[in-house]
Design a protein that fits this description.
The protein is of the alpha+beta class. It has a single domain, classed as Creatine Amidinohydrolase (Alpha-Beta Complex). About 30% of the residues lie in helices and about 20% in strands. The chain has 7 helices and 15 strands. The strands form 4 sheets. The chain has a 5-stranded antiparallel sheet with strand order 8-7-9-14-15. Strands 1, 2, 4 and 5 form a 4-stranded antiparallel sheet that branches. Strands 3-12-11 form a 3-stranded antiparallel sheet, with no helix packed on it. α3 runs antiparallel to α4. The radius of gyration is 18 Å and the shape is globular. Bound molecules: 2-amino-4-trifluoromethylsulfanyl-butyric acid and cobalt (II) ion (CO). The site of 2-amino-4-trifluoromethylsulfanyl-butyric acid (MF3) has 13 residues, from β4 and β5.
């Protein structure tokens, strides 16, 4: 989703960011609850109800519901659906599917937005229709999540917007031959869900606005196993790959602060995700060849987990 072009970028005060942190934690909890319920036989409408209950019990509001008429609390996008799939009681998950769940919540007028993709069923479950082996899907998911964290690591004062885009693209290219969806991007976030600037998931570094403390961004790479062109279904929302290949989507809301990137929708603020960027530490898998960890020294000075990531590399 794109914000209206040309709006100024909203800069939040520390106390506003503190409320965004609350929104981020509620959003993360709702997403986690829905993701934990994923199993063969559950419908995407049931997942929606779980997230809705979590958000309302926290005294928060679902931000997607009613957004340009969107009818649900979460988006559930299965297999070749990339984003914005509408939960449906008739859409029942099967072992071997992959599902992206996207959630947004509002606390005190401030937004959180995050998404993840998980496999359905035990690791030995064959992909539905035998279309993809499970390890190929696992690699897709891991590449997308890792690219997200490489982008998040760039969310520091003094960098330019497309340093994020470039870091995402580099991480994807290092991980394998994946398509990067270009027709949808991340976005600024704060007093509204979609604000300036749009955050592309590819491109040259060093372009776009300079990042300053108090900005908040939702970074959300979408990767596909085939060609990245998209098509929208007749429901007006669901975005699918034009070629039917399967897709992954991971998203976090991050605050740019003088203390480095604070991942508002991660329970630990991002410590675990950044630590996992250290060579050799990504889910115990070997590092994709040639991938640098692009974290600036200004972050290392103030945030131990990011400086750990920096220590293990040359920085820039
Ligand atoms: N995280 C999604 C995005 O930024 C949220 C879509 S919300 C919907 O595009 F309401 F438009 F579905
Ligand atoms: Co978003």
């Amino acid at each position: 989703m794109r914000p209206r072009r040309g709006d100024p970028i909203e800069v939040k005060s520390p106390s506003q960011l503190a409320i965004m942190r609350e929104a981020g934690l509620v959003t993360a909890a709702a997403l986690r609850a829905a993701a934990a319920a994923v199993e063969p036989g559950i419908s995407t409408a049931e997942l929606d109800a779980i997230a809705a209950r979590e958000i309302s019990s926290a005294g928060a509001l679902p931000s997607f519901k009613g957004y340009h008429g969107y009818p649900a609390t979460i988006c559930t996008s299965v297999n070749d659906q990339i984003v914005h799939g509408i939960p449906d009681a008739a859409k029942v998950l099967a072992a071997g599917d992959i599902i992206s769940i996207d959630c947004g919540a509002i606390v005190g007028g401030w937004h959180g937005d995050c998404a993840l993709t998980v496999s359905v069923g035990p690791p030995q479950a064959a992909a539905a229709g035998g279309r993809y082996p499970r390890d190929e899907l696992d690699s897709l998911l891991r590449a997308c999540e890792r690219a997200l964290w490489q982008g998040l690591a760039q969310a520091v004062p003094g960098r330019r917007l497309t340093d994020i885009s470039h870091a995402v693209e580099r991480a994807v290219r290092a991980a394998g031959r994946y398509g990067i969806v270009r027709e949808y991007t991340g976005h600024g976030i704060g007093s509204q869900m979609h604000m300036e600037p749009a955050v592309p998931n590819h491109g040259r570094a060093g372009r776009g606005p300079v990042l300053v403390a108090g900005m908040a961004l939702a970074i959300e790479p979408m990767l596909v196993l085939g060609e990245p062109s998209t098509r929208r279904l007749d429901d007006g929302w669901t975005v699918v790959t034009a070629d039917g290949s399967w897709a992954a989507h991971f998203e976090h809301t991050v605050a740019i602060t003088d203390d480095g990137p604070v991942v508002l929708t991660a329970e630990d603020g991002g410590a675990g995700g950044f630590a996992a960027l250290r060579p050799g530490s990504w889910a115990g898998k070997p590092e994709p060849a040639g991938e640098p960890v692009l974290v600036g020294p200004e972050v290392a000075a103030t945030r131990q987990h990011v400086s750990d990531a920096l220590e293990a590399t040359d920085g820039i």
